[in-house]
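Action item from last meeting closed. Structure (294 res):
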């Protein structure tokens, strides 16, 4: 079971390798999916696919910027080649022209090297397999640092989510303790409303009785309190699963808010209503925090 990760973090690794001095920096921020942005030195872009595969093996969500720097002259070298037979022919041709036209002055090496194809500069690079291995080792170390940072941040967010859940449960408990008194107050208002509706001593028609039943049902908040407790318990269970929880927690937070809004519409007791407001504040903090979780 893995630890919950935040999508925010930083990882860096730097080491001396046979390729040269390699540095890999990884920065991760919030994103709905996994989005990778890579910046590699010229000539190393062919390694992007391998680096993507490595990162996807450790990360599931977040916008990740990968910066790779290589300080070395070993992975690409320029080789200078002089075409001596061609230069000799140039020299002989120039000397022949000088003799035919009676020209003075020497034929210099600088003149010969400036002639077409006398000098060839070829760039030689190491095979892609030899380039990838030192970069892979460094990137692997940077990923471990990034994951460690994301887990540390995830632990802090998880602790705060548990505090918010505990606060919600305290407020729900306070509302439940207020419920008998609030119900009596609501029943009193209901009696007054039914008296206005049916009239004193009226037998009441079937339709009027149905309306009275609907009013009585609306007066109770038992179902909303039970569902709030159930959603809070499910969120605790999800936090303990160690799986990818961000999207699931966001859904549970939406359900918590929906039940709280219904509860707020039914509650008429001022003290209980204040607890409902406090519950909404906790849920808003939860919804903000879960956006940071993988």
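Sequence:
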């Amino acid at each position: 079971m893995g630890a919950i990760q935040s999508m925010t973090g930083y990882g860096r690794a730097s080491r001396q390798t046979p390729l040269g001095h390699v540095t890999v920096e990884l920065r991760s921020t919030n994103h709905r999916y996994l989005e990778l942005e890579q910046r590699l030195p010229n000539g190393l872009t062919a390694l992007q696919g391998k680096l993507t595969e490595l990162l996807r093996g450790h990360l599931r969500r977040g916008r990740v910027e990968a910066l790779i720097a290589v300080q070395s002259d070993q992975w690409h070298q320029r080789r200078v080649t002089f075409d001596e037979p061609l230069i000799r022919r140039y020299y002989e041709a120039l000397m022949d022209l000088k003799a035919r036209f009676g020209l003075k002055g020497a034929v210099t090496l600088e003149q010969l090297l400036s002639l077409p194809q006398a000098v060839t500069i070829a760039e030689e690079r190491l095979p892609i397999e030899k380039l990838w291995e030192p970069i892979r080792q460094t990137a692997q170390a940077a990923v471990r640092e990034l994951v460690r940072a994301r887990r540390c941040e995830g632990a802090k967010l998880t602790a705060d989510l548990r505090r918010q859940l505990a606060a919600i449960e305290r407020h729900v408990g306070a509302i439940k303790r207020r419920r008998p008194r609030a119900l009596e107050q609501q029943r009193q208002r209901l009696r007054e409303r039914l008296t206005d509706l049916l009239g004193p001593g009226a037998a009441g028609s079937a339709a009027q009785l149905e309306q009275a039943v609907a009013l009585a049902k609306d007066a109770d908040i038992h179902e909303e309190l039970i569902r709030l407790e159930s959603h809070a318990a499910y969120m605790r269970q999800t936090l303990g699963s160690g799986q990818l929880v961000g999207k699931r927690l966001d859904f549970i937070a939406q359900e918590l808010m929906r039940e709280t809004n219904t509860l707020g519409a039914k509650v008429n007791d001022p003290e209980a209503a204040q607890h409902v407001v406090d519950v909404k504040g906790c849920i808003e903090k939860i919804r903000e925090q879960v956006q940071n979780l993988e």
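Note appended to the action item: Residues 128-198 form the longest helix (71 residues).
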